[in-house]
Design a protein that fits this description.
With about 425 residues, this protein is of the alpha+beta class. It has 2 domains: about 5-165, DNA methylase specificity domains (Adenine-n6-DNA-methyltransferase TaqI, Chain A, domain 2); about 215-370, DNA methylase specificity domains (Adenine-n6-DNA-methyltransferase TaqI, Chain A, domain 2, Alpha-Beta Complex), CATH 3.90.220.20. Helix content is about 35%, strand content about 25%. It has 12 helices and 25 strands. The protein has helices spanning about 5, 20, 65-70, 125-135, 155-160, 170-210, 220-225, 275-280, 330-335, 340-350, 360-365, 375-415; strands spanning about 15-20, 25, 35-45, 60-65, 80, 85, 95, 105, 110-115, 145, 150-155, 160-165, 215-220, 230-235, 250, 255, 260, 265, 270-275, 285, 290-295, 300-305, 315, 320-325, 370. A 5-stranded mixed sheet has the order 15-19-16-23-20. It has a 4-stranded antiparallel sheet with strand order 2-9-5-7. Strands 14-24-21-22 form a 4-stranded antiparallel sheet. Helix 6 packs antiparallel against helix 12 (about 375-415). The protein is globular.
């Protein structure tokens, strides 16, 4: 008799068991360096949708070490959980159900696979709904650490959370009812997401169109560094010198992560702080007023201009600064240029070649930028500011719709796992 069966005090009643008693857990894939190699489709956190589904439209197909793959090949019914990553407004703990019959699939090292021990006692589809409910209900929020600017899930604590388990037939009924209800919500959510993406995509395409007619030179970042157009380009990789949790103070020198990037600016009210003495130890990743800050790790893409009266700002491992020479490149222009469709396509191509969301500093220096003369840069900035205000109003509207849909979804899940779903 399995642990699930033994845990039941009532022959046909609900019971609760720690997740670790119901499942086995498997760490994500590293590509490895030792042959032989095999081709695998690797599910990454970029393939997780807000609805708890897998999106295969932009999946990575990689050559991976056969020995690594043999231990990390996904099975139908596995649940993939995001353990590291997240974003400024996105906790880790998202889950998707692997429900694919054919093909060689694995999962990235930022994720883990959760596999039900006995599907005659616990339906993986039901468990996926429970874990999805934990996420939307905020239960993973207290189980997170952000010591290096990346959100990390306390997976041991997560495994100790208790799963509400009704009889198998009731599990299947709950899944069927939720699937029917979520079908309509998913369609509404998809429409709102598409509208939001259209608004954001229109802005990025507008910038790209402005750049195409700007007559600007197309240069790699390395070429810009060599020409003195960019004076310095460094990230917040502090090696063994990362500040410890107890070293942060209530006020002092700002310590900035990707979560501080808001609407093209750095919101220092969201920063942590270090004492002057502790901040003086850092020799790299020290930003200043006018630097352009790019999020390159876990949350990739957000970019902002740093405007501050502080003499310096310390960067976390998740961000990089670009320090333009003002007689050649205006910070606000570079910030908008890096929000263009063309630049986004470049860093997304870099991420497709890896099992994690990251654009390392060496890869950034190979990316190209379109840099016109200063008068044209000023014109692009003015046009972008005007359009950005209109785009923000649309973003607020569609984001509000998505929030309402998510609240309805959370309410249904809460009823389902309290035994109140009819």
């Amino acid at each position: 008799m399995t642990a699930i069966a033994k845990a039941s005090d009532k022959a046909f009643g609900w019971r609760r068991l720690p997740l670790e008693d119901c499942c086995t857990f498997h760490n994500g894939l590293w590509t490895g360096k030792k042959p032989p190699f095999e081709t695998a489709t690797v599910i990454r956190n970029t393939n997780f949708t807000a609805d708890g589904l897998i999106d295969l439209s932009d999946v990575a197909v990689l050559q991976v070490e056969a020995n690594q793959l043999s231990k990390r090949r996904l099975q139908k019914g596995d649940i993939i959980i995001e353990k590291s990553g997240g974003g400024p407004k996105q906790p880790v703990g998202r889950v998707v159900l692997f429900d694919i019959d054919e093909g060689v699939y694995s999962f990235s090292n930022f994720t883990s696979a959760i596999r039900v021990k006995d599907q005659n006692q616990l339906d993986p589809r039901y468990l996926h709904r429970v874990l999805y409910w934990w996420y939307v209900d905020g239960r993973t929020e207290p189980l997170q650490r952000r010591s290096t600017g990346i959100r990390n899930l306390d997976f041991s604590a997560y495994q100790r959370l208790e799963v509400p388990i009704p009889p198998l037939e009731e599990q299947k009924r709950i899944v069927a009812v939720l699937d029917q209800a979520f079908d309509a919500l998913d369609r509404a959510h998809a429409r709102a997401e598409a509208n939001l993406a259209d608004a954001e995509g229109f802005f990025a395409s507008f910038i790209e169109a402005e750049l195409e007619k700007s007559g600007g030179a197309v240069l790699t970042l390395q070429q810009m560094l060599d020409a003195g157009m960019i004076l310095s380009h460094l990230d917040g990789n502090h090696g063994e010198n990362y500040p410890r949790k107890e070293e942060f103070v209530d006020e002092g020198v700002p310590y900035v992560s990707a979560n501080c990037i808001k609407d093209g600016r750095i919101d220092l009210t969201l920063a942590k702080f270090l004492s002057e003495d502790r901040a003086a130890v850092f020799r790299k990743g020290v930003a200043q007023d006018g630097d352009v800050i790019f999020a390159h790790n876990a949350t990739v893409g957000p970019v902002a201009t740093l405007r501050t009266e502080n003499s310096k700002v310390i960067l976390s491992t998740s961000v990089t600064y670009y320090r333009p020479f003002l007689e050649r490149v205006l910070p606000e222009f570079l910030m908008y240029e890096m929000r263009s469709s063309a630049f986004k396509k470049q860093y997304e191509a870099v991420m497709k070649q890896a099992t994690r969301n990251q654009v390392p500093i060496t890869a950034q220096r190979r990316l190209t930028h379109t840099i016109p003369d200063l008068p044209v840069q000023r014109r692009v900035i003015a046009a972008a500011i005007e359009l950005e205000g209109k785009s923000r109003s649309l973003n607020d509207l569609y984001s509000g719709q998505i929030s309402d849909i998510n609240e309805m979804r959370a309410s249904l899940l809460k009823k389902a796992f309290a035994g109140e779903l009819t």
